[in-house]
């Protein structure tokens, strides 16, 4: 393989990697890989209420 | 001879009854649910409640009074309002929506006699299902040890359903429980409790769900009035004695520090042999490609780009696995909950809510689930402060940076004469502590200025001590390793290739040789200019410059100079020198600056980037055994036009501090924007963390250089 062919192969791989990387980073922004379970249930619905609420005079 | 509670010997009907009674076991985590399941159905099952592990329903069968009973073990949950997969599965089974699950004939709710008030929350919800309910009062022996007595007959009459005390490990109360199950299925379901959230006096404007929770606790308070009696007891169980030490403000803190230091020490020595194997494999792959491929861009792309980038990262897999192994064991046995209790005091002390602990603890793995977990914080002030400081917790993506620089530049000497305690472990633990301390300071400042207000107290449960489950521990380690390898196999490969291109092009051999020639001329002129100066400093400088000149005249020195010149003339080199004035005060050269900039979208790419940049710019000395390729290159790296090493202990510490404090994760910033509903907060987070990181790195380098 001469230098020109090698450079062409390398630049093709680099272009593909750059396109893939841009897409991946963009997707990663809006759907992070380590995001937990999403829930719209309001706070307090799990049965835990803060201590001051429990001890507040009724 | 079969007893009343024997598992069936076959699946045929008993007394002509074709369909078995289907009974669901429902209860909070750690109430002895799985133990009761095993005692009744006689088949082994796992104990405990881990997200994603006990989500599966588990079934068993037994016969009683000629009735065949099918038992379904539901995941341990606190509430029937689903907010996690565990709770979702439990609710779906109870409502008959779960695919493949039969209709439920009776619900056995386990209530821990040692904390009946909290357990009755789930009981109150189960009573509203419209199904026959039996309450199994568990841990009554432990409650008796603690001086707690429960009038179960009064409780049963108030609830309108049977309440049976059970000691499952000793099989006490199993027959009465089975009697009650069979009898209850022939009766109509109990009446649902009358809960009136609208009667709650709510000057603070809580959500309807929170008001309902408060109304349920008010109902529970009336339900248990006179039912639970506590007499003072002086007898302490072994568990209570251990907890007394581990949750003690001083003793517990010392134990916590000792445990963490031991874990970090172990990460180095236990993972070292496997890391050496990985390093050897990476070197072999690089050597193989070097030998087989002709010289040129393709070989350089593979060896200097892909292998150097990915290889520099994957060698840290054993240490990642080791850290998660230890953390999973500590979590599985219940120790982390004790550590949480200690941290709760710190959080309240800096003006945060105790509710902030779980989000902050989650952030040690990744800040994103941690920030999302702040949804459980009712108070907006506490929630915002927690979100702003969560990214300061050292996530798992920072670990390889800490480990690489610590292993390469921190001496592995014993500390305070303790052979098991090494300086490397202390430095690694300090990086984690730095994030916590800075977060505490930031939270304290914010909660006393911008977000002023009283802290919200919080109730938390300490689970009992237990042996960690091997399968759970191994699953956590597997998940962590897979996540690390996935990033290495995708993101880091792509970044390595792109960085290789930026650091390799444009490439002109004429321009490179011209720069090397200019360097030679410059060195010669500087040596000649110092010839007449007789001072000691001039003599030292002359000697160093002469050494450089001599090296430049050797084949190896010329190769190194050419690599350096090519690197400086590349796109990355030109951009790097533009940012050099910003990073120079931190002790960094332009190459470290480039790696740090490249890590802003996702910090896990930094080692790959460093691997590529220094592989292209330096010659591998290759003589050090037991160190990986990247460590060798970093140790060999010198400042442009000098023999002065780039990486010294102060520089390594400065980089670690920068990575500990900097907001190098675009995903985290986007999640902050989504969770707060404003782009102001991501901007605030990015600005204050980047500013703190730069100042922290500057102070570390300048103080380190002055003191070391």
Essential attributes:
heterodimer, A: 58 residues, mainly alpha, 2 helices, 57% helix, disordered C terminus, B: 708 residues, alpha/beta, Rossmann fold, six-stranded mixed sheet, two-stranded antiparallel sheet, 58% helix, elongated
Strand order of the largest sheet of chain B: 2-3-1-4-5-7
Which structural class best describes the helix and strand composition of chain A?
mainly alpha
What is the general shape of chain A? rod-shaped
Q: Report low-confidence residues of chain A grouped into runs of 5 or more.
A: 36-58
**Number of DSSP helical runs of chain B:** 29
Helix content of chain A: 55-70%
| Quaternary state of the chains | heterodimer
The CATH class assignment of one domain in chain B is Alpha Beta
Radius of gyration of chain B: 32 Å
CATH third-level topology of one domain in chain B:
Rossmann fold
Quickly give the structural class of chain B.
alpha/beta
Q: What is the CA-based Rg of chain A, rounded?
A: 26 Å
Question: Major beta sheet of chain B, specifics?
Answer: 6 strands, mixed
Kindly state the number of beta strands of chain B: 10
Strand content of chain A: under 5%
Q: Can you characterise this structure?
A:
The complex is a heterodimer of chains A (58) and B (708). Chain A has 58 residues and is mainly α. In chain A, 57% of the residues lie in helices and 0% in strands. Chain A has helices at residues 3-30, 51-55. The longest helix of chain A has 28 residues, at 3-30. Chain A is rod-shaped and about 45 Å long. The model of chain A is unreliable at 36-58 (pLDDT under 50). By secondary structure, chain B is of the alpha/beta class. Chain B has a domain at 21-229: Rossmann fold. Helix content of chain B is 58%, strand content 7%. Chain B contains 29 helices and ten strands. Chain B has helices spanning 33-41, 85-94, 116-126, 140-145, 152-159, 174-185, 208-223, 238-246, 251-292, 297-314, 317-333, 335-349, 357-362, 367-372, 380-389, 399-409, 423-448, 470-489, 491-504, 509-529, 536-552, 555-569, 571-583, 590-598, 606-617, 629-636, 649-661, 666-676, 680-707, and strands spanning 21-27, 58-64, 67-73, 106-112, 133-138, 148-150, 163-165, 228-230, 414-415, 418-422. In chain B, the strands form three sheets. In chain B, strands 2-3-1-4-5-7 form a six-stranded mixed β-sheet, sandwiched between helices. In chain B, helix 27 (649-661) runs antiparallel to helix 29. Chain B starts with 20 loop residues before the first strand and ends with a helix. The relative contact order of chain B is 0.07. Residues 6-15 and 44-55 of chain B have low confidence and may be disordered. The chains are: A mainly alpha (58), B alpha/beta (708). Chains A and B meet through helix 1 and helix 2 of A and helix 3, helix 7, helix 10, helix 14 and helix 19 of B.
